[in-house]
Design goal:
Layout (H helix, E strand, L loop, with lengths): L14 H20 L24 E6 L5 E3 L2 E2 L2 H13 L5 E6 L5 H12 L5 E4 L5
Parallel strand pairs: 1-4, 4-5
Antiparallel strand pairs: 1-2, 2-3
């Protein structure tokens, strides 16, 4: 007696488990990338030296209040005096970072004038202070 032949099922690729694995791997990489921190270099033990000197970074804060008054590190001064003071700092070998802290009500031209004067002094680095919304 001959058994009836069953029709062969065509070969199928089960894609659902493969998609599950891909999503699991993708989730792993996304979560691990969220916890990564950028390192500045390789960790090394630096040697000590008796004659070493620290290099302090000079930061100067130039403030322009709503009335347009100019001050350097809370000391009122004129634009010309500001330029002279920065010239003195550069001649002592410093490369000062000047942070411009301007009120939003200050005329834009006044801020640009301060930046323009400070740019004439070689070696001065500029930054503008803002606040996060």
């Amino acid at each position: 007696m001959r058994l009836p032949e069953e029709p062969e099922q065509p070969a199928q690729i089960q894609i659902v488990p493969m998609i599950d694995v891909i999503f699991a791997v993708l989730t792993f990489f996304i979560m691990s990338s969220l916890f990564l921190t950028r390192s500045q270099g390789l960790p090394v033990n630096l040697p000590g030296a008796q004659s070493s000197q620290s290099q302090p970074s000079q930061e100067w804060v130039v403030t322009l209040d709503a009335a347009g008054n100019l001050s350097l590190n809370r000391q009122p001064m004129s634009l010309e005096a500001l330029q002279v003071e920065m010239q003195k700092q550069v001649t002592t070998g410093q490369q000062p970072l000047v942070i411009i802290n301007a009120d939003q009500a200050v005329n834009h031209g006044k801020v640009v004038a301060v930046m323009d004067r400070l740019r004439t002094v070689p070696g001065v680095r500029l930054a503008i202070a803002t606040r996060k919304p």
